[in-house]
Amino acid sequence: MRKQVTPATFPFFSLAQSPGISQLMFIIKPCAQLAPHHHPRADELLTLVQGGPVHVGMVDEAAAGQQSIMLQMNELDLTMIPIGDVHFIENRQCQDAIIVGSFSNADPGVELTLSSLLTLPDPQLATALGLSQNATAQFRASTKPTRFQPVQDDGSCMRACNITQ
User: Fold this and answer.
1) What domains can be seen in the chain, in order of their start residue?
2) Which PANTHER family does the UniProt record give (predicted)?
3) pTM for the whole thing?
4) Where are the alpha helices (DSSP H) in the chain?
């Protein structure tokens, strides 16, 4: 199986040390999603190198009341993700999507949204989710945050791509 994430950051790629930038190439498998996350120290320029179309979703914190934005990227399209904006990428196609992320910082950082939320103590997590303590405990026990995960739909993507779990 191929690696899904290839960093071009220092110390993996020594030329990235001086200009203060970095890149990351990643593969999103068919019917998969790169989980909601953000980069606390960098803007990101996404390039869909191969495959697609893919869907990019982001939360624009600068909009009044925060807005969810959905974009479709086709092969060789570019889109910008502002620093700190929560975003995700879905590949609902039957071939790999190869994407390059270019960052405005040699160390952009990455924080998975769900992983961060799950670090809250139970009472604060229950309040944030609007759930009872018992429901929160069940949610925590049944949730396993990962960077890449299958898309959640009625199973049509998996059937169309002949993927079994």
Assistant:
1) 5-111+147-160 (2.60.120.10)
2) GERMIN-LIKE PROTEIN SUBFAMILY 3 MEMBER 3
3) 0.83
4) 113-117, 122-129, 133-142, 156-160
